[in-house]
Amino acid sequence: MKxxxxxxxxxxxxxxxxxxxxxxxxxxxxxxxxxxxxxxxKKLSAIIKRVNEDRDAAxxxxxxxxxxxxxxxDKFRIASDEIHKAHALIEPQLLTSIRKAIDNIRRYxxxxxxxxxxxxxxxxxxPVRRVGVCxxxxxxxxxxxxxxxxxxxxxxGVDQIAVISPxxxxxxxxxxxxxxxxxxxxxxxxxxxxxxxVAALAMGTPTIExxxxxxxxxxxxxxMAKKKMLGHIGIDSVAGxxxxxxxxxxxxxPDW
Length: 256
Prior knowledge:
five-stranded parallel β-sheet
């Protein structure tokens, strides 16, 4: 639904300015979290319980239910030849941009990394062994997610990185996401997503080995699954929806 300007414009001069600002924050929270004990929370718990009990069989059935694609366990992981094929199909100009982004982020992460510096005789920083990365699989692929999560992990010295993404592109994962993984040397990629994939990473299945930490964005189901799994594994954060706030003075044109 298209919003009118006066529905999204918040002026400090408005008498209800503070209330409107609070309402925005409340809406963001509601768009991220499930109410404890609510209907959605119960459904999420049921998904996690199902994965815990039925493991790979649960992933097969839940992927078919939520994504409309059926894979048996031996097809969860993307084959190496499929990853190579996706990489070969990427346009040279896009590949150049991807490599530039990877180089920029790696250089920055190396500059701020303190794991190999002796800053205190009693401090030792050790990378976790294995990390799971959630990559959204909506209509617009987000290869940037792979770069922004995997590169810092590699710089920190993480040995194993497993990527999950729902099969929303022709029954699999978008080629550009696979191409970025190839550029980073990541070959453990699973075409499963949602809360069920988070649960699989957190608890492990015969096909998907348990990780130490889960990072990356996703919808409410993914974020709330990460929150519920905290304690089994570590997480980066409970990320909300994308937010854009434009701050302007009284000389600006709001309709612009």
